[in-house]
Amino acid sequence: MGGRLAFAAPPRRRSGAVGEDELVTICQALGINRKDIVDHSWCDNGPEWRAILLKSAEQVLAVRPDPSILGDIKLGIVGPHSGGDCAFEVRAIYGTEEDPVTGSLNAAVAQWLISGGHAPDRYVASQGASLGRAGRVHIERDPNGEIWVGGDTVTCIEGTVTV
Fold it and tell me: How far apart are CA 53 and CA 41, in angstroms?
């Protein structure tokens, strides 16, 4: 059993540029240069995500975050694929963890990328490759301007609860 479920992206509580001091920390934690960041934004729709856009999906997959430097920063790392079925590679880093597929991050990132002209109104993002997963997140802006975030689902367990 399975199917595709989607939700409307909640509004961002905070957007706009990430501070330069935090960008320096992010670059140190990822082992990249500041010039590798094409764009950046707060993508806070509950979790206080900061997001950076790198030049390529390959750069996104190559970074090895150092959690001792990153600290409490919740970070989305995004880069465009040069071809194939996915437009972007996405990673979600928080503390010592990485999430294989993150709806909240992809929702806020989609709002940022589409409104900023970095992405079309409809695209597929890949997430989880760095963890050996093949997650796909489907993004679409409808005619009313609402952004929908969806993905395929698989039922892993079923049951009933009697209260």
Answer: 9
Count CB atoms within 10 A of the CB of residue 68. 8
Helix (H, G, I), strand (E, B) or coil at 112: helix
* Rounded Cα distance, 16 and 41, in Å: 5
Identify the structural domains of the chain with CATH numbers, from first to last. 2-154 (3.10.310.10)
pTM of the entire predicted model: 0.91
What are the angstrom distances between the C-alpha of 33 and each of 28, 29, 55, 78, 136? 8, 11, 12, 15, 28
**What digits encode the pLDDT tens for the residues 27-74?**
999 999 999 999 999 999 999 999 999 999 999 999 999 999 999 999
Judge residue 4's burial from the number of C-beta atoms within 10 Å of its C-beta, 0-12 exposed, 13-18 middle, 19 or more buried: exposed
Residue spans of alpha helices (H) in the chain: 20-30, 57-62, 67-70, 103-115
d(CA 77, CA 75): 6
